[in-house]
Amino acid sequence: MLKVGVIGAGHLGKIHLKLLNQSEKYELIGFFDSFEENGKKVEAEFGYKFFHSMDELMDAVDVVDIVTPTLSHYEVAVKAIEKGKHFFVEKPITNTLEEANSLIELSNAKGLKAQVGHVERFNPAFTSALPYIGEPLFIETHRLAEFNPRGTDVPVVLDLMIHDLDVILSIVKSEIKSIHSSGVSVISDTPDISNARIEFENGCVVNVSTSRMSMKNMRKMRVFQRDAYISIDFLEKKTEIIKMHKAPENPSEYAMIWQNDKGERKEIAFEHPEVLPNNAILDELESFADSIENDLPIKVSLEDGRNALKVALEIIAYFEKSQEVIQNQNIEKE
Asked: What are the residue boundaries of the Gfo/Idh/MocA-like oxidoreductase N-terminal domain, all occurrences included (predicted)?
């Protein structure tokens, strides 16, 4: 078993602590939290060992699980690398691209393994749909969340949309051609609602919508390709595949037949792949353990995390630039 320590015992950190404590692939050594009062409280409530020094905890483990605010990801990860520890870091990988590239270079130089916590890659609805996804032509996503003060210190693109960006980049094997975006700040100083249109070099077009000011929660993705329409509900853990193929000579009375203006008849077929229940966070953590112990490829690499961050920052930059243009135009009118 791999000895693991958690850095950060906030809302998500406590979830990681619980799951690592249950895992058969890790031995939870303890955790460190920069807020000592919170650390003592978590130790008293759950019994996990609280280390008063980050260095002391890192020295006692094989793997460091970083679940701190994004601004400190780089600093903590660099310390783990310097100590020769494999590390798991929550999304977004870092605060800047420069930091992300530095982590990639430093961890590669030390021969260490690292994984980024883009948990939707382990969502059973998504994994059940993967065998059906070939070459998407159009993708539409809606990730809507009810308001929660936690996370409003960063733009909704980095808080929520980045989940979908990572999934999209994992299934569209092409370079990005252009990005256009818009956003609205409702309650925070950064956009709380955002939409982005991404065009890829291979012709695929993506429309991504995200809000943290919704009346209901929704996490859906629709993938359109030449041979199928694929619907993925990340929240309800449901997947539906709709395919069209040449209609048989004598279709059943329940068959759905569509005929075009040329007289070609197609049968519409519905498939509902089995979606096995799982705990996606536990799966991503144990996948990392398998990668370390069996020298397997990382499911969500630092490069993947860097690529998702790059697109997210470009979406934010486009929005900010467009806002500057609008403000300048208003000034000129005055």
From this structure: 2-118
Q: How far apart are CA 239 and CA 61, in angstroms?
A: 39
Tokens of 125: 């609805």
In this predicted structure, what is the pLDDT of residue 190? 76
Model confidence at 147, in pLDDT bands (50, 70, 90)?
Answer: confident
Fold classification of 121-279 (topology level): Dihydrodipicolinate Reductase; domain 2 (3.30.360)
3-state secondary structure of 202: coil
Give the residues across from 172 on adjacent strands.
Answer: none
pLDDT one-digit tens code per residue, 92-128: 999 999 999 999 999 999 999 999 999 999 999 999 9
3-state secondary structure 216-267: CCEEEEEEEECCEEEEEECCCCEEEEEEEEECCCCCCCCCEEEECCCCCEEE
Amino acid letter, residue 288: F
With tokens 């249109």, the residue in question is 197
In the three-class reduction of DSSP (H, G, I as helix; E, B as strand; rest coil), residue 196 is classed as strand
The 3-class SS string of 74-95 reads HHHHHHHHHCCCEEEEECCCCC
Given a contact cutoff of 8 angstroms between Cβ atoms, the answer to whether 325 and 332 are in contact is no
CATH topology of domain 2-112: Rossmann fold (3.40.50)
